[in-house]
């Protein structure tokens, strides 16, 4: 009954970029060192204290640069992924490595001076790569195929283990490759975000043990009518859960009985942001963005008008937090500043470049793809104030050498 997971797995958004020019093959690195990670017995879970600060690998906004995945077709008609980095300090793009068959690539992220990424050589096996661009060296750690990186701190990468329809968490020491299970609260369906020490999770609450009904579809669906979804902060060090909000499994209803969708967008400071709307087929109505405090109090709609049928707004992050919500408008791009609570329109019409992220020194990285005749320049760094004023001049990012 695989379809049951779809009832409470919320919509995830992903943005993929294509390079302006074909990628060249990356230089061969030194021979990789392969190790096999050994998981500790489940009965002896690891100490869960976070080493430093947790960060969300899905945010894709490290402080030092923007990582881009390009593709190049091989003679055998497969496509290899080429990872490149836009360095904010130098405004230059550099080529990092060839990650192999793009269809086998999973999550990728920077860890210190290293680049980490997961691949699946086959459906039954996975490999975790730790590549050091400075000297071309690489370590490869064998993983079970149902483990997927989701968060990292100064020492560990945290791995989701999916057991349809719920998940558990394990973590791998990036220095040794050792994997340890973490005692995970029951019935977690999604891990959304982190505040640096805790994880924001969604879990199912039911008076009837769902595991006993998993093969009984009618009884399972009946139990779901009274089930609740709990959004909560999970403290890894203590195991404590702090409830943010709860709502019926099938969602809140409007006056016509339509389910009001809730999609988590991200956090800024002490606020959580959610998209709310009624989605039917290819259309959406009652679109809005709501915010609440980290503990769920003070829920309110933010002053950011979403047109009918627009759906979920884009997010522009800085340092793992939402800075802007963005949508396309009639005259340009509409921006809601999550820190100030103010909305404004960035003029420029169709020529307004789309913002990708904000750097910690106050610049907007924009994509120039399909905006400029000179196709060799794909990105530009623009001071935040200039961008919001409709001035899109800035510093062009020097393309990577082919």
From TrEMBL:
<protein>
    <recommendedName>
        <fullName>Lipoprotein</fullName>
    </recommendedName>
</protein>
<keyword id="KW-0732">Signal</keyword>
<feature type="signal peptide">
    <location>
        <begin position="1"/>
        <end position="25"/>
    </location>
</feature>
């Amino acid at each position: 009954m695989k379809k049951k997971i779809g009832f409470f797995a919320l919509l995830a958004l992903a943005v993929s970029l294509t390079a302006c020019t074909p990628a060249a093959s990356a230089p061969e690195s030194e021979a990789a060192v392969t190790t096999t990670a050994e998981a500790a017995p489940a009965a002896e879970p690891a100490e869960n204290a976070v080493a430093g600060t947790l960060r969300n690998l899905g945010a894709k906004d490290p402080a030092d640069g923007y990582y881009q995945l390009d593709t190049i077709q091989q003679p055998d008609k497969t496509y290899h992924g080429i990872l490149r980095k836009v360095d904010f300090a130098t405004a230059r793009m550099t080529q990092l490595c060839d990650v192999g068959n793009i269809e086998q690539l999973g999550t990728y992220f920077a860890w210190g001076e290293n680049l980490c990424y997961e691949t699946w050589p086959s459906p039954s096996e996975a490999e975790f790569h730790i590549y050091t661009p400075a000297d071309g060296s690489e370590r490869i750690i064998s993983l079970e195929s149902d483990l997927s990186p989701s968060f990292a701190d100064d020492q560990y990468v945290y791995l989701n283990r999916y057991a349809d329809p719920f998940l558990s968490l394990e973590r791998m020491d990036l220095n040794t490759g050792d994997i340890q299970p973490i005692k995970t609260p029951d019935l977690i369906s999604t891990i959304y975000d982190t505040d640096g020490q805790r994880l924001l999770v969604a879990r199912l609450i039911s008076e009837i043990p769902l595991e006993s009904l998993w093969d009984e579809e009618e009884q399972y669906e009946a139990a779901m009518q009274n089930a609740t979804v709990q959004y909560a902060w999970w403290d890894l060090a203590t195991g404590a859960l702090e409830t943010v909000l709860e709502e019926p499994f099938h969602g809140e209803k409007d006056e016509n009985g339509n389910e009001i969708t809730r999609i988590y967008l991200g956090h800024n400071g002490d606020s959580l942001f959610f998209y709310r709307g009624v989605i039917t087929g290819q259309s959406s109505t009652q679109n809005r963005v709501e915010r609440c405090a980290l503990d769920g109090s003070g829920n309110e709609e933010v002053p950011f008008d979403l047109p009918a049928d627009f759906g979920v707004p884009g997010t522009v992050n800085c340092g793992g937090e939402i800075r802007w919500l963005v949508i396309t408008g009639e005259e340009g791009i509409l921006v809601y500043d999550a820190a100030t609570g103010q909305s404004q329109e960035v003029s420029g019409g169709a020529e307004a470049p789309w913002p990708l992220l904000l750097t910690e020194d106050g610049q907007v990285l924009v994509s120039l793809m399909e905006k400029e005749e000179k196709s060799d320049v794909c990105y530009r760094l623009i001071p935040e104030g200039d961008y919001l004023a409709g001035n899109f001049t800035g510093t062009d990012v020097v393309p990577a050498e082919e």
